[in-house]
Write a structure and sequence with these properties.
Blueprint (H helix, E strand, L loop, with lengths): L14 H26 L6 H25 L1 E5 L4 E6 L5 E6 L5 E7 H6 L2 E6 L8 E6 L1 H11 L10 H14 L1 E5 L1 H10 L2 H25 L8 H10 L2 H27 L2 E5 L3 E6 L3 E8 L3 E8 L1 H6 L1 E9 L6 E10 H12 L7 E3 L4 H28 L1 H21 L1 E4 L3 E6 L4 E7 L5 E5 L9 E8 L2 E9 H23 L1
Helix pairs in contact: 1-2, 6-9, 7-9, 12-13
């Protein structure tokens, strides 16, 4: 353990450069519209004024970076077992974190940090979805030593440091590693998030047109975009042209999503030891996350038809921290089916096999048809029946597509269970299989509407640390038996603890 941590100290001196670059980035991000406007009108401004403004801006940013550096101090209060942070230039603040409340400490090396050979340390505590504390510029040794102390179980770490380090080295030697190939990550990027990519690109185009319109108005150019005219001209195109434009946008969205996925998950490595998995990945920003095997609550396997043919999946592990209300999600993209099976078997000591399956009754199709087809068309007819009549072919396309989605969703919706596990399968294109242990359920409820009594149908809701999951239109008699079994399995550990 580095004893200097018990005295206030600053970050690495290269942190001044890093803070300066961060400040420059924040200014550009916040004022990019005005910067473009400035260069558009630069002919109206004298050259010496431009140079003076740039120099003044750089001087302010440098002073701010130096002030941030010298006012940022951190140390360990050994007596109270607290980690203390002093920061701020004008409005100074002191943050104190109890060692026992520290849930996770992550060390990463973003792209810019690599040039200065420094690391960023983030401390996560219960009660916040974001990182509580960030120390942006640490040497690797300081970051590792600080993480080791903050995550240590007791004060005995100082006296037992040599034994701990020896056991860690021994454990790392025994660790089993796995690497997700770049090709597998690229396959996942190409075959995932079509809708999100399409909507994101459309939103970006709309935002870009809006900002350009505002910019043209500010520089007093009479070029206001008439969206009504654009819409009428767009609809004047033939349907093949419109479909071609939509296809191009989708392809661009897929390309952007593939590049984004590749950058985020590049060089994905999985290291395993007896207690946990360690995930390390990232091209520009190296990230690291830990999956504690004993704390895993839910494993979600996501796979669409194309990914099934390519034999790859997207797997999410949800684990609970000390607070049990705080959840941490780690994911593995593009993992092969064999590797996925081994990973899940290592966590749960077995690969779940299900003997029982419950499927929803066909009446669910009728309910969903009324909810997503009949009701929307009735409302649209009441609001503007002429428009509905005019574009009747669009209504027909809507009915056909939604009906297909309803049928696919009904076919995929299933509830599997055995003595130890429950799995919920759902989805239309991306099929999700959420698996959790019966013993880790918080509670289970079943319900039945009065009109379902004759048909013997009902619904069941599983309450977990990750939220609740509900499936409807199932055989109510079988749901009662499943409910009784789940309650029995939930109560057994409580009785053992009470005794």
């Amino acid at each position: 353990m580095n004893n200097s941590f018990f005295q206030p100290q600053r970050q690495s001196k290269t942190g001044i450069v890093l803070l300066f670059l961060y400040n420059v980035g924040m200014v550009i991000k916040s004022l990019w519209v005005f910067i473009i406007l400035f260069f558009v009108k630069k002919d109206r401004v004298e050259s010496w004024m431009i140079i003076l403004a740039i120099l003044a801006g750089l001087a302010i940013l440098i002073i701010a970076a130096v002030s941030q550096y010298y006012n940022f101090k951190y140390y360990i209060d050994e007596e109270n077992e607290e980690f203390v942070i002093h920061e701020g230039i004008i409005n100074k603040s002191v943050t104190k974190i109890k060692k026992e409340n520290i849930q996770e400490v992550n060390i990463s090396q973003p792209f810019i940090h690599r040039f200065f050979n420094i690391y960023k340390l983030e401390i996560d505590t219960p009660g916040s979805s974001e990182k509580e504390v960030k120390i942006s510029a640490l040497t690797k040794q300081n970051a590792v030593d600080l993480k080791k102390y903050l995550l240590a179980a007791s004060k005995l770490e100082n006296t037992l440091e040599e034994n701990i380090e020896a056991s860690i080295k021994q454990e790392l030697n025994k660790a089993r590693s796995l690497k997700i190939s770049t090709l597998s990550i690229l396959k996942y990027g190409i075959t995932a998030n079509y809708i999100q990519s399409f909507l994101a690109l459309v939103s970006l185009l709309i935002y870009g047109f809006s900002e350009i319109n505002n910019l043209l108005q500010k520089i007093e150019i009479d070029t206001k975009l008439d969206y009504d005219t654009i819409e009428s001209q767009f609809l004047a195109f033939s349907i093949p042209v419109i479909l071609g434009i939509v296809l191009v946008v989708i392809i661009l969205g897929i390309i952007i999503n593939s590049v984004k996925t590749l950058i985020k998950y590049f060089n994905f490595k999985i290291s395993e030891n007896n207690q946990s998995f360690s995930f390390e990945y990232g091209l520009f920003t190296t990230r690291n996350s830990i999956v504690n095997k004993s704390k895993v609550q839910i494993i979600t396997e996501t796979q669409n038809w194309i990914q099934k043919k390519m034999k790859i999946s997207f797997v999410k592990f949800l684990q609970i921290g000390k607070n049990e209300e705080e959840k941490n999600v780690s994911a593995v993209p593009g993992i092969s089916n064999d590797e996925k099976t081994k990973l899940i078997s290592t966590i749960w000591k077995e690969n779940p096999v299900f003997e029982n399956c419950l499927k929803p009754n066909f009446r669910l199709i009728i309910v969903n048809t009324f909810q997503f087809i009949v009701l929307p068309l009735i409302l649209f007819f009441i609001i503007d029946k002429n428009l509905l009549i005019k574009y009747w072919f669009l209504a027909v396309i809507y009915i056909v597509l939604v009906k297909i989605f309803i049928l696919i969703y009904f076919k995929n919706l299933k509830l599997f269970y055995n003595e130890r596990f429950i799995r919920l399968k759902s989805g239309i294109w991306d099929i999700d299989n959420r698996t959790f242990e019966v013993e880790k359920l918080q509670t289970v409820k079943i319900s039945q509407y009065f009109w379902q009594r004759k048909t013997n149908l009902g619904s069941i809701t599983f309450y977990t640390s990750a939220g609740r999951f509900k499936i409807v239109a199932l055989n109510f008699i079988k749901l009662k038996k499943l409910l009784n079994y789940c309650i029995y399995k939930i109560e057994i550990p409580k009785k053992i603890n009470d005794n």
